[in-house]
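Thread: quick sanity check before group meeting

JM: Hey all, I'm pulling together slides for Thursday and realized we never actually wrote out the predicted structure for the chain we discussed last week. Dropping the sequence here so it's in one place. If anyone has concerns about the input, flag it before I start.
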Amino acid sequence: MDKSDIILLSFLAFVVAFVFMVFVWYRQKRENDFKMREAFMAREVAEVEMMALRAQINPHFIFNSLNSIYGFVQSNNKDVAAKYLVKFSSLIRMILENSVHKEITLAEDLKVMELYIKMEQLRMQHGFDYKITVSENADTENMMVPPMIIQPFIENSIWHGLNNQTEKGLLQLLVNVQGNNVYYIIEDNGSANSVAEKNEVEAVKKKSMGVSITQQRLDVLNKLKGKKSYFKISDICNAQNEYAGKRVEVVIEN
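JM (edit): ok, ran it. Output follows.
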């Protein structure tokens, strides 16, 4: 084999190696582009799912509130109905303003929740007290949370725990912030048998889809952020191991 043959073979080997490297690079780039498009499409689908779920929670809440106003009117309690309607209009305005945002400040969300609780207090003729406690380290003006994520749990505490109790009830909301995560604890001292089933309005309320929608919202949120936001519902028992209310823990990881 003379020198020219060696040069030719070396050149051919270089060309083959170069073509192989280009092929590997192109194939890797193509796979990466496909994965990026796939991830983008999955994110787009998740965003649409989240928008749909947010759109579901608002009509659900509005429907329940209108039922309460209807109850006041039916019982000829027009003064209370008027007061409730004023609070309801303020709440609807805030909900509509927040509905266009994926997240709102914790301060704004707590403001909405407190107004909602006050509405329910009015409906129940102040049959329960409430207490909202926020940890000192919580920067509520800058911490961002999904809007109305805890509203269905507060609704359930009031409607299925505190409603029609013989003794005055207590609803407590504790909010703690650790790092970028928000921890909610919702507790009530309602009795297990406090839910009245005497009329159609309450029967409709009992079939609340709010908690189910919230589970779906958290599932999509975890898909979008790669986190593990969750909620856990448990019974509260007294010293005699008797039922003494409900406790809901909601964790939003950011």
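AS: nice. Residues 64 and 205 are 7 Å apart (CA to CA). The first helix runs from residue 3 to 74.
JM: adding both to the slides.
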